[in-house]
């Protein structure tokens, strides 16, 4: 799985068309890079006890990635450090050659999913300060996601409100694998705060909630994790709809990140069909599940389904809405999507512009 890309992008879209990349993963160059943003109490705590996530692993995800940090082989910064840790190299490898006008940062190694909730909150706040200091203040094309200690909804809401009105941030970031499905009430304060300050909530694949990827236990292979992201997102989305989150927070916007979107119509159809018979169980819902999904959910495109017949892809997008797709590369990870190779022929100029840039600027309020 040694994946790398050509030195120069080849297709016209990557050189001429400004794009938004809605899933970029920044990394820390060193383990102590967060220390300037953490109280000394937490320096000692980190060195003594380390990071204790719900899933039981001392650090990192539960499945081997087959490639260091799940990243491209050519993404190692020349000055050292892990992939995604150098702004200057990110500018040279991603932002400049692909004409990225808006890049949304989604850091994954944060304080989300830790058992010590106070430590989780401190780490998340430090990550948010670090994003400003190292990334968004240095390159105005980059905007950050507010990471929150998601298992403590009250603390998460406080962190969101602390960042209200800060132009460095354009969304709140959650993960798909949590202690409970995302529609549960423990997460409601987060949604309330996000709606209050007018930022969408992104739900990225992965997480550290301690539950297996599948409903029937832990799978064996990385490939099962890769395709299993869709299962987690389906669970999260069904929970959000059926618990009445969108009825309670009617202005809430959510972005499903890095789990595909081809499954959305079939999930909605199944929910609608069952809803006809079991509406009495969820009387707080005033509309069909599909209507909440189509009104409240945006989707990033990496990984994007790639059927043999392009009309199958277009039919899926037409159900979702061309105005609900956000282009993403997933830089610096190995399954990076190059902009010029994502959309097949036959897309109108208006839909192409919305797909690559317009939808993201509108959702994130970028002029």
Automatic annotation (TrEMBL):
Keyword Hydrolase in annotation: yes
Biological process annotations from GO: secondary metabolic process
Residue segments, region Disordered: 60-85
UniProt xrefs under Gene3D superfamilies: Metal-dependent hydrolases
Residue ranges constituting the Amidohydrolase-related domain according to the UniProt record: 21-366
Keywords: Hydrolase, Lyase
Pfam families: Amidohydro_2
GO-annotated cellular components: cytoplasm
MF (Gene Ontology): carboxy-lyase activity; hydrolase activity
Record-linked PANTHER family: 2-AMINO-3-CARBOXYLMUCONATE-6-SEMIALDEHYDE DECARBOXYLASE, ISO-OROTATE DECARBOXYLASE (EUROFUNG)
Protein known as: Hydrolase
Source species: Bradyrhizobium icense
């Amino acid at each position: 799985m040694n994946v790398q890309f050509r030195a120069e992008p080849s297709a016209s879209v990557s050189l001429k068309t400004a794009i938004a990349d809605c899933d970029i993963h920044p990394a820390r160059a060193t383990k102590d890079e967060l220390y300037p943003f953490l109280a000394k109490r937490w320096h000692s705590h980190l060195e003594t006890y380390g990071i204790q996530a719900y899933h039981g692993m001392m650090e990192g995800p539960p499945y081997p990635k087959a490639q260091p940090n799940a990243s491209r082989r050519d993404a190692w910064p020349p000055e050292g450090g892990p992939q995604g840790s150098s702004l200057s190299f990110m500018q040279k490898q991603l932002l400049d050659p692909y004409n990225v006008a808006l890049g949304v940062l989604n850091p994954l190694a944060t304080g989300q999913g830790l058992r010590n909730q106070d430590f989780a909150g401190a780490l998340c706040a430090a990550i948010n300060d670090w994003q400003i200091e190292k990334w968004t203040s240095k390159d105005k094309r980059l905007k950050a996601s507010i990471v929150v200690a998601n298992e403590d909804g009250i603390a998460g809401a406080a962190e969101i409100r602390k960042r209200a009105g800060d132009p460095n941030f354009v969304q709140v970031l959650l993960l798909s694998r949590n202690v409970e499905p995302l529609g549960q009430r423990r997460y409601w304060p987060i949604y309330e705060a996000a709606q209050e300050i007018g930022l969408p909530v992104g739900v990225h694949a992965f997480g550290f909630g301690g539950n297996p990827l599948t409903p029937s236990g832990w799978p064996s292979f990385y490939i099962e994790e890769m395709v299993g992201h869709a299962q987690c997102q389906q669970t999260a989305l069904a929970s959000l709809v059926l618990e009445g989150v969108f009825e309670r927070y009617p202005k809430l916007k959510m972005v499903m990140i890095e789990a595909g979107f081809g499954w959305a119509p079939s999930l909605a159809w199944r929910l609608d069909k069952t809803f006809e018979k079991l509406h009495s169980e969820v009387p707080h819902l005033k509309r069909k599940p599909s209507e909440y999904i189509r009104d409240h959910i945006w989707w990033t495109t990496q990984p994007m389904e790639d059927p043999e017949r392009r009309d199958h892809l277009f039919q899926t997008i037409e159900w979702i809405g061309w105005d609900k797709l956000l282009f993403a590369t997933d830089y610096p990870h190995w399954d990076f999507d190059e902009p010029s190779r994502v959309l097949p022929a036959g897309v109108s100029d208006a839909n192409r512009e919305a797909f690559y840039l317009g939808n993201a600027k509108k959702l994130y309020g970028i002029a």
